[in-house]
Write a structure and sequence with these properties.
- The model is unreliable at 1-7 (pLDDT under 50).
- Helix 2 (47-66) crosses helix 9 (318-329) and helix 3 (82-88) packs across helix 8 (283-292).
- It is built from 13 helices and 24 strands.
- It has helices at 15-25, 47-66, 82-88, 90-93, 159-164, 166-173, 218-235, 283-292, 318-329, 365-376, 390-399, 410-415, 433-443; strands at 29-31, 43-45, 71-73, 79-80, 95-100, 107-109, 132-135, 139-141, 151-154, 179-188, 203-213, 243-247, 260-267, 270-281, 298-300, 305-307, 310-317, 330-335, 338-343, 354-358, 382-384, 404-408, 417-422, 428-432.
- The strands form 7 sheets. A 7-stranded mixed beta sheet has the order 3-10-11-17-14-13-12, with helices on both faces.
- By secondary structure, the chain is of the alpha+beta class.
- The structure holds glycyl-adenosine-5'-phosphate.
- Glycyl-adenosine-5'-phosphate (GAP) is lined by residues 157, 159, 189, 191, 200-201, 204, 206, 208, 273-276, 313, 315-317, 319-320.
């Protein structure tokens, strides 16, 4: 397995501000309930952001489910009864140590304090209360009566949905270990210190795989997934020197883990986790079998033996990954005396793949442009823009990372060809309309 790479590439100090600014200005991410003053580190994904977030999740699903024969997907419920979280250990253990400053009344995570004796808000020394464990799960009530019998929890991770459906999937999918169950969806944690834009929020999206293996193959598959998951970020455009794989120290490991490594990204404030890959052993299936009474073992007919599969779990954040993709792709360069802002996103992650731009708002160009748009739209997410000078329209597309612009000009009417401009090099090529779908298809695979 790869050793952690300790080189820390240079990142401009105000990169975060520039990215957050771009997100607001171009409709990637808005603070939630902004017209009411915002709502505690929650965010809404705008017209461009919703496309990009969807692409991050689709790229993950493509790699983890579509291109494999040993992984199937599910979409489990977000609401679940306390029994699930009792068995998983979340009711007891999913806590952060919380301290209050008696001087300024601010609340902090004890394990995030730089100096455990000094309040980072008011500077007072020895002003903290004793730490108390604060459970991060959001609790609610299912149905009209707020009794203890109606208590339900919003899931704090998607993982448990896979464990409690293990037997259902095994019985219906004709898979046998080693095989995996994948899920993408919202999770909720009542984080004490959310922050750094969408890095840590109370509502976020996860992309998790639970990969069930014969017990003697746990270590092989752990190494396999550590490498595969690091490669996924590189394959989707993040430079290798801005990523590292960091194995957890023994004292960091969860009680059930036989090994955990984090894929970390060099955020503007330092290395931060994008994904954890854990060897969870047989802990989860054993816990759920014991608490539910269900048989969650597997009978292997080839070896005539029964075992509880071990689980290797690559657990990634979709919203957090989207932020890393944005930061990694953000670039500014001088072009003819002007600053060009460009998101050098991998085409699979880019919100729009193609922008269709008639040179003028006049006929017959707009009809032709609409015709070309109609050819491309069934296959790719396309933007269409017919206002402003063409140079400004190219810059707008650069800023949101659109890999190709297709320009329809007056010559198009005669030669039935368009100009295709590539985002990163700004190189332009004349392509016959009849060959356009094939030309773009070869580049947007
Ligand atoms: N099932 C294991 C699990 O949930 P985790 O490390 O707690 O593991 C996995 O979460 C990933 O989910 C993290 O690496 C991170 O990308 C994302 N994540 C966790 N908490 C988050 C939060 N509050 N806001 C945004 N993303 C979060």
């Amino acid at each position: 397995m790869a050793e952690p790479d300790e080189t820390t590439p240079d990142v401009p100090a105000d990169l975060m501000d520039r990215v957050v600014n771009l997100c607001k200005r171009r409709g990637f991410v808005f603070p939630s309930a902004e017209i009411y003053g915002g709502f505690r580190s929650t965010y809404d994904y705008g017209p461009i952001g919703v496309l990009m977030l969807r692409n991050v999740k689709d790229a993950w699903w493509r790699t983890m489910v579509q291109l494999r024969t040993d992984v199937v997907g599910i979409d489990a419920s977000i609401l679940s009864p306390p029994a699930v979280w009792e068995a998983s250990g979340h009711l007891k253990n999913f806590t952060d140590p919380l301290v209050d400053c008696t001087a300024c009344k601010q609340r902090f995570r004890e394990d995030h304090l730089e100096d455990p004796n000094v309040c980072p808000n008011c500077g007072k020394r020895d002003s903290f209360t004793e730490a108390r464990n604060f459970n991060l799960m959001f609790k609610t009530h299912a149905g009209p009566v707020e009794s203890s019998a109606a208590v339900a929890y919003l899931r704090p991770e998607t993982a448990q949905g896979m464990f409690i459906n293990f037997a259902n999937v095994l019985n219906t999918s004709r898979k046998r270990p080693p095989f995996g169950i994948a899920q993408v969806g919202k999770s909720f944690r009542n984080e004490i210190t959310p922050g750094n834009f969408v890095f840590r929020t109370r509502e976020f999206e996860q992309m998790e795989l639970e990969f069930f293996v014969p017990p003697d193959q746990g270590s092989y598959w752990y190494d396999y997934w550590c490498k595969a998951r690091l490669d996924w970020y590189v394959d989707h455009g993040i430079a290798r020197d801005r990523l590292r794989l960091r194995p957890h120290d023994a004292d960091e490991l969860s009680h059930y883990s036989a090994g955990t490594s984090d894929v970390e990204f060099m955020f503007p404030w330092g290395w931060g986790e994008l994904e954890g890959i854990a060897n969870r052993t047989d802990y989860d299936l054993t816990q759920h079998a014991q608490h539910s009474g269900a048989d969650l073992s597997y009978f292997d007919q080839e070896t005539n033996s029964r075992y509880v599969p071990h689980v290797i779990e690559p657990a990634a954040g979709a919203t957090r990954s989207m932020m890393a993709f944005l930061i990694a792709a953000y670039d500014e360069e001088e072009v003819r005396g002007e600053t060009r802002t460009v998101l050098r996103l991998h085409h699979r992650i880019a919100p729009y793949k193609i922008a269709v731009l008639p040179l003028s708002k006049k006929q017959p160009l707009t009809d032709l442009a609409r015709e070309i748009l109609g050819e491309l739209q069934p296959t790719w997410m396309c933007d269409y823009d017919e206002t402003q000078a063409i140079g400004r329209r190219y810059r707008r597309q650069d800023e949101i990372g659109t890999p190709y612009c297709v320009t329809i000009d007056f010559e198009t009417v005669d030669d039935r060809a368009v100009t295709v401009r590539e985002r990163d090099s700004m190189a332009q090529e004349r392509v016959p309309i009849a060959e356009l779908t094939g030309y773009l298809g070869a580049r947007l695979r």
